[in-house]
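Please go through this protein, sequence plus structure tokens, and consider how the sequence yields the tokens. Keep your notes short.
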Amino acid sequence: MRRLLTRVLHRVLLSETFTPAAMGKEAEIHTQGRRRMVVGLGNLGMEGTRHSVGMTVLGALAARLGVADRWRGDKHVSGEVIVSGTERTAVVLLRPKLLMNVNGVSVAKAAGKYGIKPEDILLVHDELDKPLGKIGIKHGGSARGHNGVRSCVDCLQTDVMLRLRIGIGRPAEKTSVERHVLGRFSKEEQKVLGLVLNQSIDVLLSQLSLQDLQSPSSPAEGRNAAQQRKQRESSASPAQDSASAQS
């Protein structure tokens, strides 16, 4: 019943249509290359918590790219956006300003506004089944119980999106999962988190570079491109294994 209600909410929130005035000049960026979008999934007003670690990664990525001062709120996509890139390529960074369960609404609106295909979207989110300090790339497929990813799959009506999963580990025996994911990292965990952020940015930049070599024109071709990337990563050196993880 809860999932059905969420889907109904998705449809209501996605019912708004874009007008030229609403789209703004940023949506009219002309580029000869593919447009890509990196999304940091999280909860509105809960930045800094384990569940919103995807947003933290996006903030660190923006800083690495030298565009951290360019975040702007966009009510038409229900999120904060940075549009960066060159004449040949464009990258949209998105931090949804919605609850995690409906993050997909923001992602779908931004994809429509900027003309970005689902196979060119990379989702960054927390992962309970990986310990803190471990990250992994997942090439599409099921949401594996993550409500933010499930929302994106529902709103985009496809599961081809690449995901970067950031391990947060499972809670201690006496701590509920909800309390764990909505809690903040301890001082000791923050030391590890700093290393994780650097590693995550390296992986994101690597994935964006790999995508430049592909130009799928349909979800099916997107799956083929993802499989080819996976095969390349499987032959990577041992030093890279911790960055590209199991799907």
In short: The chain is about 40% helix and 15% strand.
